[in-house]
Specification:
The structure holds two protein chains of two kinds. Chain A has one domain (6-232): Rossmann fold, CATH 3.40.50.300. Chain A is 33% helix and 30% strand. Chain A has helices spanning 54-61, 85-92, 108-119, 123-136, 152-164, 182-199, 210-213; strands at residues 6-7, 10-23, 28-39, 43-47, 69-74, 77-78, 93-96, 170-174, 202-207, 218-223, 226-232. By secondary structure, chain B is an alpha+beta fold. Chain B starts with a helix and ends with a helix. Classes of the chains: A alpha/beta, B alpha+beta.
């Protein structure tokens, strides 16, 4: 199917076709001909053992890396050297990582505002959006707190806010609850699903946690650089 | 605001390193300011000796130093008689010594010279100058270090002179100098019939160009320059100024290397942070602004501190009695601006490689960086 075209009435927003990627001058093959599609509004869990290529696939979808071979499309547009990567990172895709990747010396609010500063968003609009997301993630009372003062769950919720500040329609999450205990993990993941649903976004999430994966619309198994099976959760 | 926070956050995070960089630039700027100001001041003072009540200087063409210039007395006599010339005064420069004072500037002048007639005499009578061949007038500081008063005898070089007056001037060279009658100075320095320069005052400044032409035609081995023109073109002044700027420049270069070192360390220690900014949509230019901004803050803070330290140092120098009159502590605003711009440029150049390195960081690799 041509990228961006509809399957029924649902649009494909992420598509990988025969994707190959290796590191260390080709000696470590990570992706070996991956074909994958994610439809608009879907929540998809990407499961598999460590080193099977989950993070690499997410990085390729986010334009952070280039494949050796094959094609990656986001919202129907193939990512290549002529792609406006800044537009992709600022407006189309949001990232959440296992480690929160927040800047420790900035406050929660300042960390969240980074994508809006990068995109040159109007300050008032950005602050309104921050307020809205902080309320929804229960962080309103922590806005002026430094990152060091936040708990692990709060840090990950902050990372979630930051990823959604510019209203991207695709959220790429790499083990978003991997560094949290079970309880915090459940809270953050529930929040993630809730936000994705209310924002009308699409979620592609790499995870080892089968329980969380089963709460997604679809589960994609990866093994040794290949998609093994597609299963509806 | 967040840009500023990103810039200042890193400086605050590594306070000691930032302070060392600021200090490096500050001391470089202070050194440059001090050296350039002192030399510019010295050049200005020497120029002011020549320009006392005159606007033109006539001296021997192609000499590297005025002390080697020989202008014949006949030239002085002829030039004085020209209708366009208000007055022309021959001056003979020489270096003399006395016990404990190896270098004293000596001025051989006529009794009508402005340096004698318009000076502030604190002892003696100006009309007494040049009545006798062994009469000298001392600058106030020279009188002090030679422990001389009016009427006393002083040993200068191989001869003994009789002090007939003491005068006070703001110029260190004159204040620490000895004024002899021209004939005596010519005899003392074995330069009979010559002077080092003729200082000329014109009746009408519009005649300056014609005067220069006439000098060129009538005295091909002499050259006439306006005072400002002389200050700009005199090779000794140019060498002094170039040396001052070179010394200052080297200091600034060292400061710049300090900034470069700081910025490289700054980039290396925040590779992951830069990757986070990239993933969140920061462009190469925006990353560059953060790095250059940090460098600019270091450079400008250093420059401001350097201006303050340099000014204090110059002020302290002025308080040293031995340097009174030799050090002009007034800092020219243009010099301050030039030093500030040079410090800023140094900082920006120092941040060039770190900024390029930061802009080239690949987010995907940097996020794996621990």
């Amino acid at each position: 199917m041509k990228p961006g075209t509809s399957s029924g009435d649902i649009r494909i927003v992420l598509q990988a076709a025969d994707l190959w990627k290796s590191y260390d001058e080709g000696t470590v093959a990570v992706l070996k001909g991956v074909d994958c599609e994610v439809r608009s509004g879907e929540t998809v869990a990407l499961c598999g053992p460590s080193g099977c290529g989950k993070s690499t696939l997410l990085h390729l979808f986010g334009g952070l890396d280039q494949p050796d071979r094959g094609c990656v499309s986001v919202n129907g547009n193939e990512i290549n050297s002529s792609t406006n990567m800044l537009r992709l990172l600022r407006h189309e895709v949001g990232f959440v990582f296992q480690l929160h990747n927040l800047i420790p010396d900035l406050t929660l609010a300042e960390n969240c505002l980074i994508p809006t500063v990068a995109a040159g968003a109007e300050r008032r609009t950005a602050n309104e959006r921050l307020k809205e997301l902080a309320e929804r993630t229960g962080l309103s009372h922590r806005l002026n707190h430094r990152i060091q003062k936040l708990s692990g769950g709060e840090r990950q919720r902050t990372a979630l806010c930051r990823a959604l500040m510019n209203r991207p329609k695709i959220l790429l999450a790499d083990e978003p609850t991997g560094s949290l205990d079970e309880q915090a993990s459940n809270v953050v993941f529930s929040l993630l699903l809730d936000l994705v649903a209310t924002e009308g976004a699409t979620l592609l999430m790499a995870t080892h946690d089968r329980n969380l994966a089963n709460r997604c619309d679809r589960l994609v198994e990866m093994h040794d650089g290949k998609i093994q099976e597609h299963a509806h959760a | 605001m967040i840009f500023l926070k990103l810039i200042f956050t890193n400086l605050r995070r590594h306070r000691i390193r930032s302070l060392i960089s600021v200090a490096g630039i500050a001391f470089s700027v202070a050194a440059m300011l001090t050296v350039v100001t002192i030399l510019e001041g010295a050049v200005g003072m020497f120029s002011s000796i020549l320009s006392s009540d005159s606007e033109m200087i006539v001296f021997e063409r192609d000499v590297s130093d005025l002390f080697f210039s020989n202008v014949p007395s006949e030239a002085t006599a002829q030039i004085s008689a020209w209708p366009t010339v208000a007055h022309a005064n021959p001056v003979l420069f020489g270096i003399v010594s006395s016990e404990g004072h190896p270098i004293i500037t000596c001025f051989g002048v006529t009794a009508t010279d402005a340096r004698i007639q318009k000076a502030d005499w604190i002892a003696g009578d100006r009309s007494s100058f040049a009545r006798h061949a062994d009469d000298v007038v001392l600058g106030a500081r020279a009188a002090e270090f030679l422990s001389a008063a009016v009427g006393s005898k002083v040993q200068i070089g191989h001869a003994v002179f009789h002090v007939v007056g003491i005068l006070k001037t703001a110029n260190g060279f004159e204040d620490g100098g000895v004024f002899m009658p021209l004939d005596s100075a010519q005899a003392f320095f074995h330069k009979q019939g010559t002077s080092s320069v003729i200082t000329v005052k014109m009746r009408n400044k519009d005649d300056v160009a014609a005067f220069k032409n006439t000098i060129r035609q009538k005295f091909p081995n002499l050259i006439a320059l306006e005072n400002a023109e002389f200050s700009r073109s005199y090779s000794q002044f140019r060498i002094l100024k170039a040396t001052a700027w070179a010394v200052g420049g080297c200091g600034l270069l060292l400061g710049g290397l300090g900034v470069a070192n700081t910025m490289i360390m700054s980039v290396f220690t925040r590779i992951r942070e830069i990757a986070i900014l990239r993933v969140n949509g920061f462009s190469h230019a925006q990353i560059g602004v953060v790095i250059f901004g940090e460098s600019a803050v270091v450079s400008l803070s250093g420059a401001m501190a350097g201006l303050l330290v340099g000014s204090c140092f110059l002020f302290a120098l002025k308080l040293i009695p031995a340097l009174d009159g030799y050090v002009d502590t007034s800092i020219h605003p243009v010099l301050m601006l030039v030093v500030l711009l040079l410090a800023l440029s140094t900082g920006i150049v120092g941040a060039l490689y770190p900024a390029i390195y930061a802009m080239r960081i690949r987010a995907v690799e940097a996020l794996r960086f621990e």
